Amino acid sequence: MNDVAREAGVSLGTVSNVLNRPESCRPETVRRVQAAVERLGFVRNLNARSLVGAASHTIGLNVFDLGNSLFVDIARGAQTVLRDRGYQLVITDSEVDQGRQRDHLDYFDETRVAGVLLAPQFDPTEDVRRLAGHGRRTVVLNHDAAGATWSTVLIDNEHAGYLAASHLAERGARKLAFVTVAEQLQPAVERRLGVGRAVAGMDGVSLRDLHVPDLEIDGGIDAGRALLSLPEGERPDGVICVADLTGMAIVQVLSGAGVRVPDDILVMGCDSNINAWGGDVPLTTVAQHGDEMGAAGARILLDELADPGRPPTRHVIRPELIERASTSPRSR
Amino acid sequence: MNDVAREAGVSLGTVSNVLNRPESCRPETVRRVQAAVERLGFVRNLNARSLVGAASHTIGLNVFDLGNSLFVDIARGAQTVLRDRGYQLVITDSEVDQGRQRDHLDYFDETRVAGVLLAPQFDPTEDVRRLAGHGRRTVVLNHDAAGATWSTVLIDNEHAGYLAASHLAERGARKLAFVTVAEQLQPAVERRLGVGRAVAGMDGVSLRDLHVPDLEIDGGIDAGRALLSLPEGERPDGVICVADLTGMAIVQVLSGAGVRVPDDILVMGCDSNINAWGGDVPLTTVAQHGDEMGAAGARILLDELADPGRPPTRHVIRPELIERASTSPRSR
To answer: Which residue ranges does the record assign to the HTH lacI-type domain (chains A, B) (predicted)?
Structure first.
C-alpha cells in the first residue's frame, strides 16, 4: 500500500479510504488511486485486513451433498442475499461424509470467516458448539436439533407429509402406502408423522409403510416390484414416496407392467428433486423451497453478525404441493 | 499462541512446530500442546500464517453453473485429489453470469489462495491474465482458449461428436439431424465439427442442423414438434442432441405422438447429464468424465505450485460412448 500511496501521490490513509470506502472520497482521488493500483498490479490483502480487526466479509456454507439439487438451491438463495449485502459466499461439500463436515467447519474457523451456514444431514450440535466456543456464529439449515441454541431455518416436513396424504385422499385414494427407508432420517420421519396425522383424521383411509433399501432409483424399482407382487385387492391405490427419484422409478415399473398411473394408482414424491422431473408421467411433489431456505438463513446470519446479542430464532418455511400428472385425473 | 505456550509450559517455537509439523515433535510434546489448545479454545489463524509467508493450502474453484451436474462432478474430482494432498477446496458459483466470475476470482486473489481452478463458459483469457499478473496460477477446465499460456484440461468434444454420428450410422441411421442452439458455444461447435467429419467419411449418410432456442427441456419439445411436422420421407432417422436434457424431451414428444424410439428413429444426447436419465427410454450419450477433468486439473495445478517453472500443459480426456435403450435394437 505504501507503493500505491507513493505512485498516486496521496497519503496511506487516503489509499485505505479509497479501497474500503470509495463512496466517501472525491471522485478525482478515487481515480488517481485506482490508476496507481492498476499500474502496480496491487491486490488488497483480505487476510491482512482481518488481522488488524477489519470485519471479514466471507460467509462459509458447508452442504452435506452438493449432488442433491436441494443444496444447490440453498447455496443460490444464500448467495443472492449475501451478494446484495456485500458478502462473499464460499461453498464446501461434505460429499455425504460427516467427517468432512468437521474438517470444512474447522477450515472456516481457521480462516476467520464472518459466519457459517451449515446444511447437515445429521445432528450438528457438536460442530456448532465447537464453532460457537470460538465466537463463530452458525445458522443451521434444514435440520432441527433438539435444544438448539443457534438459529435454524427449516421446511415444515411434517406439514409436507400432511399435504401429501390429504391430496391423495382428496383425489380418491383409500389405501395409502408410504415408501421410505428404515434408517431414521429426520425429513423422512417428520413427513411420515404428517402422513399419519392426515390419515388419522380421515374416515375409511388406511396406511401401510413400505421400506426400501435406498431412496434412489434402485429403491423405487424394488418398491414398484413389491407393489406389483401384492394381490390386487390389497394393492394400495395411493403411494407417497419420501423421495421423488424413488417415486419416479415406481411409476416406470408400474407402467411397464401395465398398471396405469394415475388411472389405477396415484403416485407422488415429497422432496421436489429436479433430477426427477418425471418423463412420461410428471410427478406430483411437495416443493422444498431450498432457495428460500438459503436466503432466510443468510438474512438471519447477517442480522446476528450486526447485533451479536440477538437471540437465536427458528424460521419455518411452509411447503407447497405441486400437482402434476401422476395424481391428476386425465382430461376426458 | 503465547497463551498456548504458557499453558503447555513450552516455548512459542515448540507450539508452532506442533501445530504445523506434528510429525517432527515428540508425542508427549504434541499431547501437551494439544491439551492446552483444547483448554484455551485456540484456533490457529491461517490468515496470519499466510502473512508470515506460510504457503496457503486453499485452492479456489469457480464454476460457471453449479446447477449443471458436470460442474459438480468437476468439483468432486478436484476435491478428491486435493484432500489427499492436504489442500482445502472452496467453491464459488458464477450462476451463469460472467461478471460474477470476475468478482469471485478477485476474491480468491485477495484472500491469497494457493491456486485457482476455473471452469468457465466463455474465453477466460482476461481473467486468467489478471491473476497471472499477480503471480497467481490458474488451471482452466473445459474451455480451450486460443493462445493459452496456462494449463488447460479438456474433453475432446470433437471426438464426442464423431463417436455419436458413427454410432448412429452403425445402428442403421442414414438421415442424421444435429440439434443445437444458434449461439456459438464452444462444446456445441466442436461436437458439430466431429459429427460433420464422421458424416463426410461415410457413403449415403446425410446431415441437417436443427436449431432450438435453448438446450433445456423446452428446446427439446420444440425440436420434437419440428421433427413431427416434417413429411415422413424427409424425417431424420437418427438425431444427435448437443445436450441430453433436450434429447430426453425429444424422446417424450416423439413417443407421445406414436413415433417409436429406437424402432422408428434413433435419438441420443452428447453431454452425460445425470438430470436426463431418460425415463422409459434411457438415453444413449457420450460421457464427459467431469470427475476426471477436475482430478486432472487439481493434479496439474499442484505440480505447478511445487515447480513454478513448469511449462503449461494441455490435457485432453477421451470421451466415451454410453449406449442405452434410445439407440439399441430391442431384444426380439
So the answer is: 1-53
